[in-house]
Amino acid sequence: MTKLIPIILLILFAMSCIGCTEKVHTDADNSKGNQTLTSTPVQPIIEHTLDDDVSVTVLKTTFLNKLKTADPGCFFVIATIEMNNTGNTTYNINPNMWALEWDGMMYSPDIPATYADGINHPQTIADNELLVGPGGHQIFQIVYQLQSALSTEPNPEYSIVYLGE
Fold first, then answer.
1. CA dihedral for 157, 109, 163, 93, sign (positive or negative)
2. Residue 18 region, left (φ>0) first, then alpha (ψ -120 to 50), else beta?
């Protein structure tokens, strides 16, 4: 082991001597005269995102209609989503394609509540009626049921997450 230490030190010394070198240009090296380099500004690529197309408002309630109330110890979050699709992506407004992030936790939609009377969501079976293509506009609602004990914040942070492509 003691014989290895001087060898390791020698290798480290040799590696530090090699290092990076820089060639210094003098006037004698510059045979073509003074040249100036011009830089062209790089235009940043701004990627179109879902946030550009969606506006979300939420309402907390325990009552949707006389037939649908929240389970004991729970409340509903009704997310009203207004979509103006200005991009090239087609979005599916099927409720299973959307999740709610509320106070750092992800929630799936309450499908029976989403299709309850008084909730603005297309009641259709045809998949093509649930698509919002480029240039399309749609306002729809999705209902989520949350446990009251998990959300005690008066003004929680929330966001809608699109689970599609």
1. negative
2. alpha
pLDDT at 67: 83
pLDDT band of residue 97 (cuts 50, 70, 90) is very high
Full 3-state SS string of the chain: CCCHHHHHHHHHHHHHHHCCCCCCCCCCCCCCCCCCCCCCCCCCCCCCCHHHCEEEEEEEECEEECCEECCCCEEEEEEEEEEECCCCCCEECCHHHEEEEECCEEECCCHHHHCCCCCCCCCCCCHHHHEECCCCEEEEEEEEEEEHHHCCCCCCCEEEEECCC
- Closest CA relative to residue 146, chosen from 73, 53, 97: 73
Asked if 80 and 63 count as a contact pair (C-beta separation under 8 A), the reply is: no
Top-confidence residue, 43 or 133 = 133
Contact between 141 and 114 (Cβ < 8 Å): yes
Residue closest to 82 by CA, chosen among 140, 12, 22: 140
pTM flag (> 0.70): no
Q: Which two tokens stand for residue 12?
A: 């480290």
